[in-house]
Amino acid sequence: MVTQDCGESRRASLPAPGSCHGPSPSPVGAVPEHERPAGDGLLPHHLRLDLWQEKPEGQEEAEGQEEPMGQESEKHEEPEGQEEAEGQEASIEQEEAEGQEELKGQEEPEEQVESEEHDEAEGQEESEEQEKREGQEMPDGQEESKGLEDPVVVDGGHGWLVVLGAFLTNMCIVGTVKSFGLINLRIIEMFNVSASETAVVTGMLLTTSLMISPLVGALCQRFTCRQCATFGGLLCFVGFCLSSLATSILQLCFTIGLLVGIGCGFITTPSILIATHYFPTRRSLVNGLVMAGNSAGSFVMPPLLQLLLEQFGLRGTLLVIGAICLHAVAGAALYRPIAQQERLLRNPLFMLVALSVFLMAAGSPYAVLQLPVFGVTRGLTPRETAEILSIVSAVDLASRLGFGWLLDKGFVRRQYALAASQLLAGGAVLVLPFCRGYGSILAMFLVCTIGMGAWFINTAPVMADHHGIEKIAVSFGLLKMFHGLSTLVMPPIFGAIADGTGDYGAQYFAIGACMASGGLVVLLIMVTGVVDRYGQPDGADTGRPQSKQPTAKRVQSEQGIQAEVTEGKRTQLEEEKLTRLA
């Protein structure tokens, strides 16, 4: 009867005695534990529980394929008697064995899928951890790793395009600044101001560009040299364009002295840093090539500016100069980032070199800037003075290229070459007050220019030798700050000497003495062994003459460079793997 408790009509479902839950549901679904049958006498209890356990999604599909077989067996009526029950039990056990065999066949694909999903999850976690770690470490010098692109070849390859871009930016920006005397003459005429008032604009321009160098070095680590130089080129463009609309000397102090000054600082510092990173064993040569852009600009820009002033006047010329500054943005586009940390102010070695730079910067390039006035007091015509400046610019270009190549040959340590260049330039300046004719003045300025050119290109490589390539952004940036301090403090002192003596030649005694004293400081560093006690060379090049046999430091340097490239390739492969999995 249907009304009977747990009636016989339900006997086919084989419920447990005393249970009234009706037919057993499909084992595929998840059923609460209190509703699971405790056993029916046909299947061991532990196997029955196994069938009722909640399965993963893959196994549910496999059991879903078995379900018709299980349902088909339930549709058969159960014969009465113990023999039929035993046959039912054997049938169920056989079905379970077949289901387990099918599940085994699907376990391997499921495990493979799970393994791939696990690898993908791990890869994403590692990528997120690496990005987080880079974001935290970036202020401490892992700069450029944020802007790191494909692995690059050091000492060649794309590095030569980087040098070309740095040459172009320096030629456009520094060449314009060094030729700014022609602009000053038109400013005096248009705004009816004195030469001293106009000199404030030029002084702000030079001082600002040098004083912000430490900040620029830090930003090059936080971002990239490409981004900083691009910002500088755009800022110079804006500054010169706004200058064409100026109506007072005060406005020019803001547009040229401040905006263009900051822009120049953001251009000149990255050009040295990026080239030094790309050529760890050719630092002097590439710095010579990069800074040769300064000389090339000072050779090309004066006649161009003179032509522009004649054709378009002051305001039109300022607009054209702004457009020329945009070429620095094109050069900065070639600065492909490369992976590149401080407390240098407490390092006695750094402070002594900074003192040397401060003294040398007193006359570099102030000694050359005073040539027009000095030449007049010695009987030279403006044409002869301009001729000397052109010859000096050409020799400066050649000396930077030649000494850059020569210093990388390792015939002499860079520190001794740095000291010799300062002594040479300072000695020539000390002789200038005794010169009276065109030939002697030209000869002394040529010697001075050769010394200054060798000094300019050797400063950054020496800092890399002393404190390591990983700190070049900080060390070189701080050095340029000391250069800026000297440019701000020393010229008024020299001007006071000239006014007090009534002879512009007298100031060259003080200028030459400062420059030569800077060389003596470098010699003191070498003789006392300060460079060996406080220097932290990166191993790539310590400034010593190179031997043909591979030294331990050279092997270590080559291994470090190779490890850097290998790490870049590994990162690229991991990114490609994650892209494929995605």
CATH architecture of the largest domain, by name, is Up-down Bundle
Uncertain segments of ≥5 residues (pLDDT<50)? Answer: 1-82, 106-111, 131-151, 538-555
Rounded to an integer, what's the Rg over CA atoms?
A: 40 Å
Shape: globular
CATH fold call of the largest domain: Growth Hormone, Chain: A
How far do the termini sit from each other? Answer: 62 Å
CATH superfamily of the largest domain: MFS general substrate transporter like domains
Compute the number of strand runs: 0
**Global structural class:** mainly alpha
| Overall CATH class of the largest domain | Mainly Alpha
Beta-strand percentage range? under 5%
Largest sheet: none
List the defining traits of the structure above.
582 residues, 74% helix, Growth Hormone, Chain: A
What does this structure look like?
There is one protein chain. The protein is mostly helical and 582 residues long. It has 21 helices and no strands. It has helices at residues 45-52, 57-75, 82-137, 143-146, 159-178, 181-191, 195-211, 213-222, 225-243, 249-278, 283-332, 348-360, 366-369, 371-377, 382-408, 414-431, 438-467, 472-501, 507-528, 530-534, 552-581.
Concise description?
This protein has 582 residues and is an all-alpha fold. It contains 21 helices and no strands.
Strand and helix map with partners:
Elements: H1 45-52, H2 57-75, H3 82-137, H4 143-146, H5 159-178, H6 181-191, H7 195-211, H8 213-222, H9 225-243, H10 249-278, H11 283-332, H12 348-360, H13 366-369, H14 371-377, H15 382-408, H16 414-431, H17 438-467, H18 472-501, H19 507-528, H20 530-534, H21 552-581
Helix pairs in contact: 2-3, 5-10, 5-11, 6-7, 6-11, 7-10, 7-18, 8-9, 8-10, 8-18, 9-10, 9-11, 10-11, 10-18, 11-15, 11-17, 12-18, 12-19, 14-15, 15-17, 16-17, 16-19, 18-19
